[in-house]
Amino acid sequence: MMKVILKTERAKGFTRGEKPIPRNLEANEVLIKVISVSICGTDLHIYNWDAWSQNRINPPLTVGHEFSGKVVKIGSNVSKVKIGDIVSSESHIICGKCEYCLTGNGHICEKTKVIGVDMDGAFAEYMKIPEENLYIDTSNLDPTYLSVLEPLGNAVHAVKHFDVKDKDVLIIGCGPIGLMGIDVAIASEAKRIFATEVNPYRINLAKEIGAHHVINPKEVNTLEYIKKHTNNKGVDVVIDFSGNVGAVEESFDYVKPGGGISILGAFNNKLNVDFNKVVFKGLHIYGVTGRLLPKTWQQIDELLKSKKLQFDKFVTHVFPFDEFEKGIKVMNEGKSGKVVLKLWKKIVLS
Questions:
Q1: I want to staple 155 with a disulfide (CB 3.0 to 4.6 A). Which of 140, 141, 181, 315 is the partner?
Q2: Which residue among 42, 196, 296, 316 is the active-site one?
Q3: Is 42 a catalytic residue?
Q4: pTM for this structure?
């Protein structure tokens, strides 16, 4: 048997439990001994049992979709990974057969299943997953941090869609993925990084990671500030991680003509956008979902090997697996960056 964290009821909370260790692998599947997991905003939605969760989740379910681990068993047709490999993973299991998968757009596969959402997930001592989802780490990054590569991929996808080198970039929202976005923009050699955030804890984190200008919209007029510091032109690229309707509506004024707006945040209400600004400013708007497969993972690999990312700054809390409630608490309070849970005190990595 193995320890797991479960959504057992259609109500707030998670439950500790046990399940049998997966034994029967399909030919393309791999059994992972999980080293660490990280808590996603999606997990928080499921824990809090909000409207989205009530319409999407069918308990009982082993939750979690961000993890690192060690390969301990492989299916008969597995060739990409071997026993002993240290891995992270793509959380979207795609069909490989639909129109989108066949044209290199698997990130919008019409039959996507998300681990920990549509099927049992990673908050467990062991889990099985198709080998094509796995990322093999060769950078020797601490496996504690490897569990955050999936959300890091969201940040990489959002930031790197537009060329930010030597450009002025605005990050809207400094939650965990927004903080990663700042770090990715720095590693991608952005000229200046502006960031907006109202949470004092995360304002400080954004500064520590290296944002050049951190604006609290409750205290400062964001548009006036950006105009003042960009010779009245605006920034080259806006990247939204917030899902804040007002901020994104105004972002069409923040960006200079010919600039780009990359949007990862999801919205509870419809936006009221003046598309004349899009047309007459010649703007480029990009909607970000998941990670490009395999392009984003290749970009992650390059970033890890560059040693430029500051995992110790945007991963702010590490708790033992059994103390997951502490991680949920700091996230609900908005007093964290990325939160990681470690399953084993010691694990042999080779």
A1: 181
A2: 42
A3: yes
A4: 0.96
